[in-house]
Each structure stands twice: as structure tokens, then as C-alpha cells.
Amino acid sequence: MTRRAPALREIRTELPLLAGLLVLIALLAGGTAAAPPLLDRAEGRVLAARIGEAQESDAAVRFSRTFRPGLDLPMPERPDVLASDLELIGGNLARQRPQNLVGPLGLPVTHIGLPETGARIGGRLTSLRLLYAQDAPRDPAYVAGRAPRAPKAGEPIEIAVSTHTRDALRLRPGARIRTNAPDQHLGGVYRRHSYSGPLVVSGVFRTPEARGPAALGSVHPLLERPLRAGGALQAEALIHVGALPAAFDRGTMQFTADWRVPLRLTAAQAARFTGDDGRAELIRGIAAYRQAGEQHIWDDAALLNASAPGQTLTPDVDDEATPVIRALGAEWEQAALLGSFALASLAAVGLATVVVIARLAVRRRAVPDQLRRARGASATGLALERALLTLPFAAAGLGAGLLAAGLVVPDVPVRAGWAIVVAALAWLAVPALTAATTSDRRLRREEPDAGVRRPARLRLTAEAAVLLAAVAGIVALRVRGTTSGPDPQLAAVPVLAGLAVVVVLIRLYPLPVRALARLAGRGRGAVGLIALARAGKEAPAKALALLVLVTTLGTAVFTGLVSETVTEGRRTGLEWRTGGADAVLTGLQQSGAELHRAPGVEHAVPVTGYSTELISMRTGLSRRSADLVAVDPGRLAAARPDSPAARALRALDAAGEGRGKGVEIPAVGSAGTAGDSYTTGFKGTSVRIRVVAELGADAARDPLLGPLLRGRSDPPGTTSPLLLTDTGAVAAAKRAGMVEPGDRMLLLYGERIDPARLRALVMATGVVGLKVDDALHFRAEETAAGPGDVLRPAQRVSAVCGAATAVLALLAVLLELALTAPERGRTLARLRLLGFSGRSAAALGAVQLLPMALAAVAGGLAVGLALPAVLGPALDLRRLAGTPAEPALHTDYGLLAALGCGLLALIALAVVAETAAARRRGLGATLRVGEES
After folding, report:
1. What residues are paired with 677 via a beta bridge?
2. Does residue 806 sit in the same domain as residue 859?
3. Same domain assignment for residues 683 and 802
């Protein structure tokens, strides 16, 4: 008991400091352990949402195969043979799902589509496509009649239509439809080998309002609502699978079978596939399933050949999920940098606060430790005692932090590795400082005749080591680039930069402070002289407070800078991706005249791009990969009066060159092309292009060019020539057959454009050679999706870590002020003894702390604003903003003002608290008789 009593008394004496150490370790360990799982869970939510959005019009994986039965080989007499064979293929596809994707990958859904057939329904020419869908609406969804059944011999094929189709075609259950014979002309298009025979309406269904991945109404929009295209109404109707043999007996020459496999990821499931390893695992699983499914469809063709003999085409596989996963990985890597920087700053400021607490604890034990050293105790022994004393509190803090992290993210395993490292560093702070302050070298240094060279050398060595570490970290980061997964070196760059800035500030900011002190000494008042003199003298002692403030302010400024830059850049990127229009359609193979009159479209601007090689007629030099873009300036000006490209094209009209002459094409060109003439080859024929004016930088970055040039790594006109001309100037060369078709797109403007209707119309007209989702983009959908969902989770983590860092920084500064309070108290007491008033004492404290605050603000601003340049290629904001070039940096001035006001409030709070404490203390409590002045 006698041995335990001193230890218990010591614990009771230092219980507030030990409790503070426990709370700090719990906070640091919990934040370090919970932040990565929180980011993973957020990434999982984003991944699940994006995959769900990608499946709005099709499933994640779609296997498709077209079958062409022979003309002289009849279908089997039993209609259920074909259905059972298709079901067997679907079952084989379901069994090929990888083990780790059995839950997320759903069962294949079979769709069978027949070629379009013509009919005149209600006096309207109608193009009708018959469709079998395994997920067709059931009987409860029918508002009239029933679902179609397999026809008997000689009976017409039964069809079911939606309520919208019923109203548009004026149909009712029992109505008969006579289709056209094969090869009959329909709306300018020949429908060959299509069904020719009677149809009868068996029922009318209502499509469900709720839409999931690859819902029937999204995959087949014409099934829900018919559209007018090509001079005829386009519509789809449901049939029974047993109607397929009858369709082949009556003219149908082929059918296409689709097996759509949806990918449904919950947030918990998606969290398994986060990070580089998780995304790679998901991509590998989908790729393996695609290969195995394609092979099984090929092998199982013999089953369908027995039911529908003849020729079968090679299977086609579409994958909607893999591009989404890859794009998310590239964006998330950049967004996660913000979270990692904020977490590293929290750890650094937290450890700095632990050091301040350790200094307080060591100072409280300074006299007893010196007495024990004088009685023969060793510095190592004292340090071991302190380590054993603080170990239970450190272990309790680590356990509490890990427990809290587990409660915050119960569905994701916490990562305890870095939490243990941070807790160990915090635990070793008190023993390390105890050993340092009680060492023989330290005691000899405190002797009256001890020199100061060795401490100066040590300080210079430490400062040089800090600067060297910061430079080495930045150079190494630029040389090796980023790595997959957590990157401690990258996360530590802001902290290293803050350390380097603090080292420079400690050396520099006392110089102007001392100069101001000399100026203040010429005046009558003593407040400025004393305060500035002490501020310049105590600058090295403020290193820890400066580090805390610079790190906190620098991380906050950098986070606000990136967020504001990405927010502003997204507006530019959105304009660039959509061409500044409300909808853009790329990859046109036809004129798309029907789309000009689509519902909600107010303006339509066709744009054509040509990639060619230019040969200068002035120098004879060749310029490769040139872009020639043709647009109608009148249509563009009507749709977008503020268009820089439309203004640039006015130079053609001003020169009288708006429509071109012969096969000469006038154009306005990027820098270095004005006044020159070029020849280029189209279809082996030389065409002359004359540049009449220079294209300004704003016109070269007109959003009009975005959908054509967004795949380029460099801004338009920087590495290859960009020429802009009038569509009328290209017309003569086109009529002469000298200009081949280029990359055509259509910009559509209108606030009331319905994406679903326009997407269905594009599918019905078949004007694009790409998939509709790849070719058609809407401003509203691009605004709702994209990098914003990636940036928001990182911003939330940064905000939480930033708030915790600010609280710890405030605590560290207050504790640091408490450490130096006795010295300042004695100074104030002496000044009060000389007649200083309380107001003068408060002014003295404020002026004394002001230089450190201004230095912290300058250092924080320097770190935050310089980090984008310091990180270099590791920070690629183009991925988040979606801009053609690196977005211009935008500073969040509101955040800067808030940080400055907060720091001033901190100084005011410290001064008020210290002044109030000094008033309560008497001079006798501060000054002692015989104490050195």
C-alpha cells in the first residue's frame, strides 16, 4: 500500500490531464478508424446509385442473339418447345454468375422481338413491332381484357397494348388488325420479311409507374407510348411466346432474343466493391460472367436450332456497368484526396495538442522530477514510470475510439492499423518529454555557465531536417505519382508543407516585429514597445501554436479552394459536355429532321465536324489532326445569342464569304492560321480552305464544340488547328461530292423537352449508329448526376474533420497560452506595480498575440493556396469538374473571412480570459520577494 499511495496520489493530481489525454486519443483513434470506412460506404452509395442510373434504359449486362430460321423448315408443332428452350438458356446464364455476384446480379429476363410490320389502324399508317417479354405485366395490371395467349391452328395472334397505345390507335379488346404483306413500302422504309397476318387485341394494360433497373417501360418506351416518326406511328405490342411459331409460318424471317441481367447493389453490397481492389474485383466478375454467358449462348444455339432451324448470328454482349465503375474510380481517387488531407490534418493537430498536454504534465512534475534525479533516479526510469502511468488511459482511449468507430459504421469493418499508430504516438508523448527534460544533457544546459551553441545547432539541424523532408516528400510525390489505395505520403504533404512554412515564419516574422518595436520605442507609450519586444523574443516558443493554426487554416483554405473550383468548373464542364444546349445528340447517321419538331424543342442546331490534315499553301508545311467544324450561325445565334462562335462567324459575312464559292471553303481559324490558305483532301479530292480571320480564345472554347471535341486531352486549338465555318460554305463541296460525311451532332434547345419522349423518338427513328444512351445527353440529367455525388461525401468528411480540427486547434492554442501564462502574468504584475491600468494590460496582451495571429493567417493562406501547385499531377481537378482544361482556381472568400474572424475572436477570448484572471490574482500571488526581474 505504501508503494501504491504515491502513484495513486499522482494519478489524482494529474487526473484532468490524463482524462484529456484519454479523450484526445479516443477522438484521434475513432476518427482515424472510422473515416476510411465512412468514405468506403459513401463510395458504395455512389456506386449503387450510378449503376442504377445506368440501367434506367437497359440492364447492366445484356446478351443478344438474332436467329434466322430457314424458309422451308417449319417451326415445331408444340408451341411450348421454343419457350422451354429459351427458359433453359436463361437458366444456364443464371448458373454462370460468379459466386461473389450471385446476389447483386439478378436472374436473366428474356425478351424476344420480331421485325416491324406495317398496318393501317384507325386510318393511320402504323409500324408495329411484336414483342414477347418475360417480365410483361400480369393480369392485375390489365384494365380491360386479359393477357395474350398462344394461338391455336388458324387463329390470329393475340396482342396486348398499353393504355396510351389504345388511346392513340383507338383500339379495344377484340379489335382485329390486318398487317401489310412483306416488302410493302412503309413511311419511306422497306420492312422485309415481317409478319403478315391477322392480329387481335386481347387486352389493355397499364404500365407500372415505379421503375427499377431495366424496367420494361424504360427498355421499350414504344410499348408504353407510341410516337410519330418517319410519316408513321411507331408502336409495340406484347404477344405470348407460343405465338412465335405462328409468326414464322406467316412471313417472319428472323427474331432477336435478349437476355437482360440487372445488377442491383444495396449500399452494404456496394461497400464490398469500393477502393481499387473492390472495383477491380467487381469488373473482373462482370467480365468473367460476360465471357461465360456468351460462350453458353453460342453452345446452346443447338437447342434453338432444333426449335427454329436455320442460321444463327454471333451473340452480342453489352455491358453498361463496367464503364460506370471505371469512371467512378477515376473521380473518386481525386475526391478522396480531400478526405485524406482533412484526416491527416486532424491527426497532426491532435498530436500537437497531445504534445501541449504532455508539456503541461511535465511542467507540473518538473520540481519533483528534479529532486528525484538529484537523489539518483535515472531519466529512463522516470520516463518508464510515466509510460506505465499513462498506458491505461491510452489503452482506454484507443478502445473507446475503436468502439465508437464500430458503432458509427457497423456494416463495414473498421481499420485499426493507423488508429493504433496514432494512439501509440500520443501515448509516448509524455514519456518522451519526461526523458528529454530530465536528461543529463538538459540539466547541464540549464546550468548558469552553459553555452547556447549546442541548442542553436540542434535547432538549425531540426529546421533543416523539416525543410528537407518537405521538399523530399513533394519531389517524391511528383516523381512516383499517386498509388492505389490509401496513400499516407500523399496525405502527409499538407502537414509537411505546414511544417516548412512554420519553420520559415519563425525565422522571418520576428524581423518586422522587432523593427516595429524599435519604432514603438520612439513614442511615448510603453505598451507597443513591451508587447512587440516580447512577441519578437518569444517567436521560437510559438512554433507549436503556429503549426496548429497554419495546418488548420491551410487545410480549410485548400478544401474551400478545391470545392469552389470544382463547383464553378462543373458549370463550365456541364456546358462543354452538353454543347450549351438542353439536349445533345451525337453520332447522327441521318439528318434527324423529325427531331427538329419533337415536343418541347424550340431550336435545333446541326453541327458537323471533320478531322483532316491541312497543307499550308504559304509554307507547304503540313498540320495534322486539324478540326473543321461547320455550323449554321443563324440557327446558333437564334438559340444562343451570346455564343462566341456565332460572333466569330460574323467575320465571314463581313468579308462577303458566308456561303463560299465553288469548292473553296472560307473559315475562321485558331491562332497561327489567320491569313493563310490550306488544301485538304476529302475522298481523294483536294479542297481549298481559306482562313479569313482569327478565332478568339473564347470562341475556341465555345460549348458548341464540347460534344465533338470532349475526348481530346488538350483544349481545342492549342496543339492542333481548329477551323470554324458556315454550313453553307461546305454545301458546294458536298454537292460536288468532294466532302465526305463527318461527325454529325444535333443541339436541341427547349425548357420543356421531355427526356423519355425524346429518347423514345430517337430509338424509333434510328438516326444514330450508337446506343441511344451513349449518343443522347440531357442537361437536366447531367446536372443531377456527375461529380457532385462524388464530391459531396468527401466534403462532408472534410467538414467533420475540419470542425474537430478547429476545436483541437483552439484547445491547443489555449493550452499553449496557459503554458506561457506565468511569464506573462509576472510581466503584467510588474507593469501594474508601475501603474499600468487594466485597459493597458489588455491592450498589451492583444498586441503581443497579434503578430503570431497574422503570421498564422499568412502561413495558412500560403499553404492552402499553394497546395494545388505543390501537388501537381496528383490533383487532377478536370476529372471532378469535367472541363476540357484544368479549371481556373476559385477562392472561397466567404470561408477566408470566416476563418479570419474566428482567429480574431480567439485572440480576443484569450486576452479577455487572461486579463480577468490577472485581476483576480493579487500582486503577491504573482511576484515573490527576491525574484529576479
Report:
1. 690
2. yes
3. no
What's the CA gap between 98 and 285, in Å, rounded? 6
* Total-model pTM: 0.78
CA 54 to each of CA 271, 500, 577, 723, 793: distance values in angstroms, whole numbers, following the listed order: 18, 46, 17, 35, 21
Do 542 and 662 share a structural domain? no
Q: Which helix (H) or strand (E) holds 203?
A: strand 198-205
Structural domain range at position 515: 458-579+785-926
Residue 186, pLDDT > 50, answer no
Among the residues of 138-274, which ranges form H helices?
163-169, 216-219, 221-224, 244-249, 267-271
Sign of torsion over alpha carbons 347, 353, 359, 364 = negative
* 117-167 per-position pLDDT tens digit: 888 887 778 888 899 998 888 888 899 999 999 888 788 999 999 999 998
The larger pLDDT score, comparing residue 841 to residue 637, is at 637
Rounded CA gap, 387 and 427, in Å?
7
Cα–Cα nearest to 680, from 609, 608, 607, 610: 610
**Number of structural domains found in the chain:** 3
Nearest to 205 by CA among 174, 228, 173: 173
- The amino acid sitting at 586 is T
Query: Taking Cα atoms as reference points, which of 820, 787, 753, 421 lies closest to residue 599?
Result: 753
**Does residue 143 contact residue 149 with C-beta atoms inside 8 Å?**
no
Task: For residues 764 and 762, give the distance between their C-alpha atoms in angstroms, rounded to a whole number.
Answer: 5
pLDDT tens digits along 92-107 = 888 888 888 888 888 8
Residue 652 grid coordinates: 465571314
The three-class DSSP label of residue 328 is helix
Answer for the pair 364, 14: CB distance below 8 angstroms, yes or no.
yes
Give exposure, 291-310, as e/b (b: 16+ Cβ within 10 Å): ebbbebbeebbebbbebbbb
* SS3 label, residue 674: coil
Q: Are residues 502 and 642 in the same domain?
A: no
**Residue 829: predicted pLDDT:** 64
DSSP 468-495: HHHHHHHHHHHHH---SS--HHHHHHHH
DSSP string, 99-137: GGGTTTB---EEEEEPPPEEEEETTEEEEEEEEEETT--
**Domain closes at, from 734, 749, 764:** 749
- Do 549 and 631 share a domain, yes or no? no
Structural domain ending residue among the three candidates 261, 286, 306: 261
**Co-location of 122 and 250 in the same domain:** yes
Selection from 383, 393, 437 nearest residue 14 by Cα? 393
For 927, the 3-state DSSP assignment is coil
Q: What would you report as the CA-atom Rg of the chain, rounded to the nearest whole angstrom? A: 38
Residues 6+ apart with CB under 8 A from 407: none
140 falls within a domain: yes
In sign, the C-alpha dihedral spanning 58, 59, 60, 63 is negative
